[in-house]
Amino acid sequence: QVQLVESGGGLVQAGGSLRLSCAASGRTFSTYTVAWFRQAPGKEREFVAGINWTGRTTYYADSVKGRFTISRDNPKNTIYLQMNSLQSEETAVYYCAAPSLPYTTPQPMARTSDFRSWGQGTQVTVSS
User: Fold this and answer.
1) How far apart are CA 124 and CA 121, in angstroms?
2) Is the C-alpha dihedral spanning 35, 40, 42, 46 positive or negative?
3) Residue 122: beta bridge partners?
4) C-alpha to C-alpha distance for 97 and 119, rounded to whole angstroms
5) Taking Cα atoms as reference points, which of 85, 88, 94, 86 lies closest to residue 123?
6) Three-class SS string for 44-76?
7) Of 10, 12, 13, 14, which has the maximum CB count within 10 A?
């Protein structure tokens, strides 16, 4: 399994941008699909974006398509989530996660139960 640590959250005005990072430990990081989820107060954790181990295939929730971009830098063991045109309703704790097995991409990616490794989360607050 991989260990994940998120960073880059903060306070931003509506319409602004943030870039989140997910740093992973473990030499096998490059063999894992990784996804971003978010959880707002009182709501269930929801899928935001995912990227397979090669970085060639990406997945997005409909609500973020065209505004968010997920990418990875395998030599740096890091996943990024570039978030543009943020809206106040996207205030949440953002988590990165990886499944239990390498070379696997959960389908659909929205099920949190398919992901075994989770970071501690980073708070994103969007003010209106």
Assistant:
1) 10
2) negative
3) 94
4) 7
5) 94
6) CCEEEEEECCCCCCEEECCCCCCCEEEEEEHHH
7) 12
Quickly count: other Cβ atoms within 10 Å of residue 21's Cβ: 17
Q: Tokens 């929730």 appear where?
A: 61
How many residues are there in the chain? 128
Residue 112 token pair: 């949190």
Residue type, 118: W
Which tokens in the block code for residue 56?
């060639």
What are the structure tokens assigned to 118, written together?
């989770």
**Which two tokens mark 10?**
């903060």
Q: Which residue has the tokens 């990784």?
A: 34
Contact call for residues 79 and 51 (beta carbons, < 8 A) = yes
pLDDT per residue, tens digit, the chain (128 aa), is 789 999 999 999 999 999 999 999 977 889 999 999 999 999 999 999 999 999 999 999 999 999 999 999 999 999 999 999 999 999 999 999 999 899 999 988 889 999 999 999 999 999 99
